[in-house]
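Reminder to self: keep the SMILES exactly as supplied, no canonicalising. Ligand is zinc ion.
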Amino acid sequence: MVDTHSHIYSEEFDDDRNFVVENAQKVGVQKVILANVDSLSMPRLQQTLTEFPNFCVSAMGLHPTSVKENYIAELQTVKENLYNQNHVAVGEIGLDLYWDDTFKNEQILAFEQQIAWALELNLPVIIHNRKAFAEVFASLHKFRKNMPKGVFHCFSGGIEEAKKAVELGFLLGIGGVVTYKNSNLGEIIAQISVENLLLETDAPYLAPVPFRGKRNEPKYLVEVLQKLSSVFAVSDEKIDVITTENACKLFKISL
Ligand SMILES: [Zn+2]
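Structure tokens returned for the bound complex:
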């Protein structure tokens, strides 16, 4: 398995990062993609990459909730790193109108700028989207002649949005939310092919049942995988093989 979205560089893992990695490997997680947030998270991300060079790869980008007055400078920092280091994706980028829409216009500018860089570098994008499907699709529409590849990480939409994302060539990142009782994500993705899905944890956030509310970690990818095999009524192994292949293909990684 590949955990295609995780933040195990964050301080929640400072006391036991080695164990977290070991435990993930024990249950079959072979790689983790570290998604950047902003200039503050970059040194931590870099440090974790250096510590676990065979286990971690990275995505570089400016997260929409970190788009504030100083976003031009933040973008510049991200760009320098993006163009000078090896990353498997541009991310996480996108729009978040759930927490705060004060900087909506700046979020859109930052999102579109980073898509342009992804295209220039021939990298996929990892899209964070909260309460902003219309705006995200409007931004993507501007790139319709040269659509980036990528994933809607922690996909949170309905069936229409799922179909539209897939039509545009995007994959849907599925994590702990699919195991929640009050979520209809399982029913939605049942109408989508496994070929369009990726596994992710978003650790330390959104731990799957029965660990909901606790710190999430890559080893809990197993719970997400098992939920998907029940949704699609196929074996765990089949979900594992297909989603791992999807991840390797999109991010051009080998295991
Ligand atoms: Zn994230």
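Points to follow up:
The chain has a mean pLDDT of 97.
Residues 2-251 form a domain with the TIM Barrel fold (CATH 3.20.20.140).
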